Amino acid sequence: MNQVTQPTLTIDGKTVLIEGERNLLELVRKANIDLPTFCYHSELSVYGACRLCLVQIEGRGIQGACSTPAEPGLKVLTTTPEIREIRKIAVELLLANHDQSCPTCSRSANCQLQSLALRLGVKKVRFKSVHTPVPLDESSPSLVRDPNKCVLCGDCVRMCAEIQGIGAIDFAHRGHEVSVQPAFGKLLGDVECVNCGQCASVCPTGALTVKSEVDQVWDLLADPKNTVVVQIAPAVRVGLGECFGLKPGEITTGRIVAALKNLGFDQIYDTSFAADLTVIEEGTEFLERKTNGGTLPMFTSCCPGWVKYAEQYFPELLPNLSTCRSPQAMFGSLVKAMLPDQLKVERKNLKVVAIMPCTAKKFEAQRPEMSVDGDPDVDHVLTTQELAQMIQSAGIIFDSLQPESFDMPFGFYTGAGVIFGNSGGVMEAVLRYAAEKVTGKKLDNVEFDQVRGDSGLREATIEVNGTELKLAVVHGLRNARVVAEQVRAGKSHYDLIEVMACPGGCIGGAGQPVTTSTNARALRTKGLYHADKMLQLHKSQDNVFITECYAKFLGEIGGEKAHHLLHTSYQSRRRIADESLSLTQVQGNEKTKVSVCLGTNCFLEGSQDVLNGVLRHAEQNGLEGRIDVRAGFCFEKCESGPNVMIDGEYVHHCTAAKAIEELNSRIEVDKPA
Amino acid sequence: MASMPIVVDRAEKFEKVVSILDHYSRRPSGLIPILQAIQHEYQYLPEEVLTYVATSLDVPPARVYGVATFYAHFALEPKGKHVIRICDGTACHVKQSLPVLNALREKLGTTEKSATTADMLFTIETVACLGACGLAPVVVIDEQVYGQITPQRAVALVDEIKATEAGLASALETEQPSAEVVNE
Amino acid sequence: MNNTEALTSTPVNGHGISTLAQVRRVIICAGTGCMANGAMKVFEQFKSEIAGAGLKVILELRAEATSDEIRLSKSGCQGFCQMGPLVSVVPDGILYTKVRKEDVAEIVQTTLAGNQVVERLLYKDPATRKSCQGIEDNPFYARQSRFVLHECGFLDPEDIHEFMLHGGYQAARKAFVEMAPEEICKTILDSGLRGRGGGGFPTGRKWEAARIQNSTKKYVICNGDEGDPGVFMNRSVMEGNPHSVIEGLMIAARAIGANETLVYVRAEYPLAVERMRNAVAAAEREGILGKNVFGTGLSMKCEVMEGAGAFVCGEETAMIASIEGQRGMPRPKPPFPAQSGLWGKPTIINNVETLAHVCRILNEGPEVFKQIGTKESPGTKTFALTGHVSNTGLVEVPFGTTLREIVYNIGGGVTDDAGKIWKTGFKAVQIGGPSGGCLTEEHLDLPLAYESLRAVGAMVGSGGLVAMNQGTCMVSIARFFMEFTQRESCGKCVLCREGTRQLLALLDDVIEGRADQNTLALLDKLGRAVQIGSLCGLGKTAPNPVLSTMRYFRKEYEEHVFEKKCRTGRCKALLSPEINQVKCKGCGLCIKACPTGAITGEKKQPHHINPELCIKCGACATACKIHAVEGI
């Protein structure tokens, strides 16, 4: 037999096989040595800043393992007295510049800095504290930024830029003044953050954490006037157990229901029910678009991170987004419409709490269009982490709970609703519906393996009744950007595109327990597909309670009432804070405001000439005290540029003459007699 | 009529920003030279201009801010009309540049944190090394290098500028009414 | 035959000087130092005075120059900045120092018209009190081996024709027309040329590593981001002989197969930026840069980029990030820039001074180059000599020259703070800038070279050489450099960002009297951790000044820590001013001078200082006419 010699190297004297590892660090970890790091993340670029993964390589001295390729023949030592001392010093240096109020930190239980200090036996910080407290940023509905806890590993920065393609936060300043922050020191809530929270899920400390609504929910529960209804998203059932020492992916639905009952929730329902409803509405919408020449490709709209992303960066594609609300929102809207009658409570006393794997859902719940007369359809959103905290706080021994079942009717669901939590799940669920609808025949094999998998951008072509459906499934917003740019450029051939902001879909949401385990996501995914298998029904259209719901309350699928309660509209948010540049000296507010768009399109159409013309006109006619000329950046009316806004009214296809004419008429009108 | 030159000035500057961006083909790689050119126009980097630059280059504003705050030469606050830079390189330090710095700060009432005078006339900065070590200690005022400077001479230079400025101001004041007469 | 060809094919004699160039000339140093002292006014004055005296003055070199014409030109930095503005008259061999506008008429009359020397404008050697007519008898110049610097102080940096008449772009032509890339790499490797910017890595090896990369796009970057405080040889070359940099870049590019080059110039050097840009434009005009270089069909581009004020950008990967429009933060190596650099393409980065050596090596051959210097460190190196020495400025000497030669012979000896020679004043030399280390009396006869310096915990670095006299506190010096590096840390890696800050804090403890025996041990441990563990060269070398002063001046540290005493009196917090009870006449002047009311005493009775109120400002000592305040 021909023996091929496999490349090897030695780690602490043991021979280890090199099998295409990205670097020495991954190889060392494969050899079951947990080399510590803050700034290494297998899905992000190598950064090399924490200096904890140092190893001694024979002939090369001490090197960072993360940035050293695994070359055959290397002799590597992972712990020498020198390396141990450097690691200890590195941790002490970080602690000397750290807010050490650890017991009150929400990451106290799973802080990597704390655990490393413990592991390395740091008993005392030999350096003097150089920490200067700075205020917390609590402006975001989803996240809290605490720069006092930041170790500047940059994981969040790279996550936001490399995986999500946003770059809402970045390093600013230099040397020991470096900090991670949004542009111009603004607050997170005021910038282009889409609230996906992936930054918090990679943060090794408490510098970026989920904004907790636990206290508000305790208050709701404590008030006897309230009837508190809770919905649990599919992904929560495969994540929560991790907070109680169970393996990722272990399904704990029954115990969660029991825990929620113990906590005092009045009705325990499942968001999967609303997911089934979404499948039917969205599937119908898709088939409608496909058969009647509607706007295609259609993007899914379940993911609030993606929706905000699209509103910010692809406002021209908003007609491509399904108008369906997300399952969380459909649930809130439907329940608050139906239950007051059924349970004989006033809407204002009916409270809906959602348990979600997601931080962006907190933002979604606060969208004004998801409310009725100021009363939100979903009152509070708790993440999986927060639910675990409530359970722990109440002293409930999770493991010892006897499983209980959901309340009806909104606790009834099919496997199609459950797999919503996986990337590709929405697509598969819609296919299970659409295939049967189109063919009119019963679908036997419900598993569409073509759309499953963990790649960030997957394509599939599925033939239904002689028609080819071209599908794309993406997760990670950077991947979404690639696809959306193709659509914008008219180069996309897809019919339906599922987008999830978080890696792996909702199971990888930032509200899930923080994990350092690399395969947690895969196990959770498996868990949800398993949950689907264990159920008797796999197609949303088989959910009898949904059928009943349409029959008794909603009326026709996609009909007027359904549309009112289950669909929504989107708004362009291209510029989060509308920046414009005043070109005249402004005093007082009785000025006529002239904003000329200098965005790319308008600029190419000659808006610069309009601006110059207006300024010259002002100068020649002594109007400089009366008008405020500003250069704006985008009014989102690119097709009709150059666009000029005069006192809030648009002048499209504007020329200098047109602007001056408009301006003169206004100044005439304004002129006191 | 006093505000008109400012109107034109600002518009011209903004037009410059547009042409600077075009000069670098609106490529993100040109960010640093773009910021340098903009600072050359404005004497600092105004926030709204940076936002515009970010939009034009299609890079996140946070990244532009990160770059602008990384390099010592970029100023995010307006600087004084006259920029005084005191070299604190090795040679200058050894030859007592600190007393010069302190004398100037005392004279103008500035500190390390607030380096610009309230009347926006002067900004005092320290630089690592101007490479004119043979002349240590060195002070640069508005790009003019002064070597072998003493605290007394430095203060005298500031007095000179102040006197010139005061002359300018009074000249303007006397000119103002006559200009109005012309306009009427 | 076009102009370029005519110039570049002009025969070159042994020293690279064509006969055409031997016109009588007046050269006014236009380096930053001399310019600051009014060199341009001197230049303008010469223009009018020469013409006024009925002499023919030419401002540009022409091939048909005649012997009665006087060429008036500017040069780059001639190195002797403290004596500027400098004016040399060649071939007369006269160097005038500290020339004012008012002196010009006399020079024109006496020297140019009358062929006599203006004695009063000559440099006087403070040691011998003798006047020195030219550079041959000037101790500052006579003992140097000026190759790179010579041309800086001679050629007109703004005249490409002059450069070409002196053999310029001949080496580039050779590299493009006569040599294969591997041959160029081998020549440079054989010469033993090592990077002048810090590490001393063999230049030929770097080039070869990039040459063998299989990539259609490669880059060469010239590192002109000279950031070490007190160092300015790169500035001098860029200002004084910008074409030598371009030529070196072209050769490097040809050697590795690149067609794009870039000069990254430190932002504090506006004149260097301007001269480099002008030189590139001139080279483009002459067809030296551009398409079809020397008729080879190859193209060559050169861009000049101005830095934006970050010391760390001198580090290769940080510089690449900066060129790409990012924050100048280093990234881990590997991959090395030669494998994956600018835009992910093979890239070499060479220091200005390194590139300035390349043309000579190609023109004269590696063997000639190796004749100077030591075996391991061939060639010459420019040092920026500053601090407490009589003559400061740029000094180019062969590797292997001793510190004693530089400090005592070229530098003219150690001085006190007032600039007077202090025979026994030598204490130490800080070599290699903030990344370097210190050398002491015991190293005075150490031949300066890469290996010998590394062995004693110092480094050539960029070539900063700060001489320090006995009045210098070594702890304060370490603190000065530490302050610099911690301010310039990019803030990326933990050990450098937090470590340098804590090192500084520990030094402050020493200087301000808060230190105990743990402080020194911790300084040592932390220093080593930062040295070994930091991500980039800046961090790895940041603790050097501390570790090296601790190694050689341990006693001084211990005095600060255990005796709370600074022998030089520089560390204010350790001072304990007292009034000599015998001397004090009780005049009360010190009481009036004291800003905190720390001094009390009856009239005509000896006064006292309350140490709890005293801020050790020294106002009392200044006020006291009879020097009764002691210990400050």
Could you please describe the fold and organization of this structure?
- The complex is a heterotrimer of chains A (673), B (184) and C (632).
- Chain A is an alpha/beta fold and 673 residues long.
- Chain A folds into four domains: 8-79, Roll (Ubiquitin-like (UB roll)); 90-210, Alpha-Beta Plaits, CATH 3.30.70; 214-566, 3-Layer(aba) Sandwich (Fe-only Hydrogenase (Larger Subunit), Chain L, domain 3); 580-666, Glutaredoxin (3-Layer(aba) Sandwich).
- Chain A has a five-stranded mixed sheet, with helices on one face. A five-stranded mixed sheet of chain A has the order 20-22-21-23-24, covered by helices on one side. Chain A has a four-stranded parallel sheet with strand order 11-10-13-16, sandwiched between helices.
- The longest helix of chain A is centred in the middle third of the chain and has 22 residues, at 271-292.
- Chain B is of the alpha+beta class.
- In chain B, helix 1 (4-23) packs antiparallel against helix 2 (31-42), helix 3 crosses helix 4 (61-70) and helix 6 (97-108) runs parallel beside helix 7.
- The longest helix of chain B has 33 residues, at 151-183.
- Chain C has 632 residues and is an alpha/beta fold.
- In chain C, helix 9 (181-191) runs antiparallel to helix 10 (203-211), helix 19 runs antiparallel to helix 20 (494-511) and helix 19 (474-488) packs antiparallel against helix 23.
- The longest helix of chain C is centred in the last third of the chain and has 18 residues, at 494-511.
- Classes of the chains: A alpha/beta (673), B alpha+beta (184), C alpha/beta (632).
- The interface between B and C is large, with 37 and 52 residues.
